[in-house]
Amino acid sequence: MNSFIQKLARKKYIDISHVSDTQLARCLNTLDLTALGIGSTLGAGIYVVAGQVARETAGPSVAISFLIAALASILAGLCYAEFGARVPRTGSAYVYSYVTVGELMAFVIGWNLILEYVIGTASVARAWSSYFDSLIDNKIQNFFKENVPMSISGLSPYPDFFALGITLLLTVILAVGVKESSRFNNLFTGVNLLVVTYIVICGAFKADPHNWNIKPSEVKSANVTVGDGGFIPFGFSGMISGAATCFYAFVGFDAIATTGEEVQNPQKAIPISIVISLLACFLAYFGISTVITLMCPYYLLDVNAPLPAVFERVGWDVAKYIIAVGAICGLSTSLLSGMFPLPRILYAIASDGLIFRFLSKVNERLKTPFIATVLSGIFAGVMAMLFDLSELVDMMSIGTLLAYTLVAVCVLLLRYKVMCIGGLHDTADGDYNKLSQTDPEENEEYNQVTITKPLINRSGYSSHQNIFQRIFCAKRQKEPTAETENVVTVIVWIFCLVVVISSVFLLFGETSLFNGEWWAVVTALVLGVSIIFMFVSIFCQPQNQTKLSFKVPWLPLLPMISIFVNIFLMLRLSYQTWIRFGIWMFIGFLIYFTYGIHHSSEAKPRAIPFELEQETSQAYEEEERLKEN
């Protein structure tokens, strides 16, 4: 049993001295990554989501909803940015969790990322087809409904061959080369941003501030819901509920993190592009939501196509054609950016042996994971053609939020770990011998390393100190020790459990809490004090001082808030979504326990360099002597 548990918890070995070695082509720069992040995040949703949330949930305060959602997304983005600087490898959250938490959790994350990108690609392909079809009076779907109807529950009413064709076309573009697909993405993302700019600037000329201060008595129609009127017509809870919906509009920036082995300078390019793309998307969403609620009363917005309807209302019919161009470009970049990470995730997991290794083969001429790209494109295309994806889209959210949560957890664990470095250098049976990075100013590419002794506790930190001293009086140490590392590890996992309990309480006990029932108030106080206690105890532990090109600021506050937000949003999903998630995980575990656990690259014995082994041994002997004294 002990051996079995060790297999599940074994960590990925990354030698920082060979971190730049890859079979893929390093041809992407910061601009390419930023366009990829914007393209994957700023899809057709910008032409729909703002109007939908304003009409049904938040009213004019939808702009604040987007601000709250952007702040929550940036928390996750900062955690990804730090890991992009630490571990510039292909695989995103999968590889980040593999080097920090262990193999089983990494497989869970990787398997769910596959599901996320497959469903995301298929749903965008379906949306692309539907939007284009709407521009030609639905001739495509009418033809196939008449000639090839499918009356089967769970399947689409008709086979969408157009969605299949679009997916296969972009699969060919992706398979030909990463630089070629990047140019395609850059062009369409640029057009999309120009259209968004046009909407914001032109819409500002038709803005009416009165639309943010409408009174219910002014509304003559009885068929519309106006709430209490004003800027926040549906109350604070409506604005927060709108923020939860808007949060999913920012999902997609993690595609940047899958390109670690195809970027020219990943330690700098990945953090910069994540932050810039999220800021650009926030400005676009904020601008659109502000303009449309100023141009038109929120209760009159068209849920399905708010932007064309708004401009048609003010007499600018030509705008709908420009908006159509932007929507087509946005859908195209969203589809390409959704397809781009999928073969990279398959490549990363297959390279580690957790799924079938033939998926990790790289075409020597094209320098792309050709087999993984073709198979993933065919799979996503067939799903887009046959399935009704509206009921499956929520499954994307579980994979995304789980990945966000674990990346934030990994940032916390690594920042308080002994001898944590820019990249990790774990042994097969432990993670105590890490390599130390040279100064980034002396080595900008981070490809040279120096081997140093493990950090030794020279502060007289006694094992006889009481629990209070260990938790709250460790700050006087400049570097973490094995004991402070263990304290943080235990507290972080307890914090995650408390957050789950708190989220369940907020979801089911909100009414009792607001009604002042004593048990609800006491529970809220206990949970709140527990979270504050854990925050203070982590804050009091010494952080690792390793130099990185980017670090998450305000630790441990920002990662802890990110964990709370992501877990809360996960638990808001329906039980049907969790049942489908369980079925998908059952299939994944069958693959892992019958194939992956036996073929894992980390199952192979790895020799420790003699010099490092000697220095490690001497350092621990010295630490033992210090403890005895």
Automatic annotation (TrEMBL):
Pfam families: AA_permease_2, AA_permease_C. Signal peptide: none annotated. GO terms for molecular function: L-arginine transmembrane transporter activity; L-lysine transmembrane transporter activity; L-ornithine transmembrane transporter activity. It is found in: Cell membrane. Coiled coil: none annotated. The keyword Transmembrane applies. The keyword RNA-binding does not apply. Keywords: Amino-acid transport, Cell membrane, Glycoprotein, Membrane, Transmembrane, Transmembrane helix, Transport. GO terms for cellular component: plasma membrane. The chain crosses the membrane at residues 33-50, 62-81, 93-114, 161-178, 187-207, 231-251, 272-301, 321-347, 368-389, 395-414, 486-506, 518-540, 552-571, 577-597. It catalyses: L-lysine(in) = L-lysine(out); L-ornithine(in) = L-ornithine(out); L-arginine(in) = L-arginine(out). It is a multi-pass membrane protein. Residues 550-600 form the Cationic amino acid transporter C-terminal domain. Belongs to the amino acid-polyamine-organocation (APC) superfamily. Cationic amino acid transporter (CAT) (TC 2.A.3.3) family. This is Cationic amino acid transporter C-terminal domain-containing protein. It comes from Potamilus streckersoni.
